[in-house]
Specification:
alpha+beta, Tumour Suppressor Smad4, six-stranded antiparallel sheet, globular
Amino acid sequence: MKRRISVIFNPEAGTGRFNISGEDLVRMVKQAGAVLNKDLEVTLHQTKGKGDASIIASRAVLEGAHVVAASGGDGTIMEVANSLAGTTSSLGIIPLGTGNDTLMSMAGHCDRDRCIREIVSGEPMTMDLGSMNGQYFVNVVGLGLDAAINHETAKRRELVKKIGPTGVYVLSAIKIITRYSPTEVDISMDDGGSKKGGVYMFTVGNGTTCGGGFRLTPKAVMDDGILDISMVRPMNPVKALMNIPYAYKGTHLKRKETSYHQVKEIIVTSTGGKIPYHLDGEGGFENRFVFKVAPGALRTVHHLKRM
């Protein structure tokens, strides 16, 4: 049977540093199909702005695409995943993003050729999605300091070519940590736990990795039916800066300032104004957050990594 693959290409992904075209990607997919002796029907769609990937992916589902390949960064992947959730079409990823954190969380690698082979011949498997206020996310949501750093990082994307995504994130962190003030919140978890106090860094992970390699929810597994929560309580800026290497390695969980939870639902309500957030890298501000897990909501052709 002919395998129908829809390639959704975001030319702005990764600040355009990959010097690759949509036609290049289609050629690579077809070449892999020839090597693996697969009968393919490959279509190319290029995004022009935010929201396009979601619209194109929805159309691809209606047209019977077996695989919809998100060719871009985490934002492109999230848009496509929201349209594929609950359908029989599978998510594929061709990594072209700044940090490619979603793919690292899913598969543990950013090997483009391997991803293309799986798009061409991989068998579908199910994985979880998280949701924030009704919108699905694939990888990680950050509230508070992490989100403020993410917002600052988005302003510095032109530096990625020079110092890489992790370097840009660290520069942003140094700037934001010295001026960030925690917001007071009420937190309620489905395990009966509750907390009140200042949100300094609060991470909800379906996956493990964000910010170009920071392992803020290092115990997360994408098909275990739960969300991982990392909470870091307020600390002085000097101590926060000293904790950056621990956050990168995922060893911040051993620090007394960090608490870690695994839940299916958690609600965070601000009592002190809107809180910055990033949803798979896409930023905004909100007063109240309801996080839930959607077990097995998405099909993917990529092999999920194990701890």
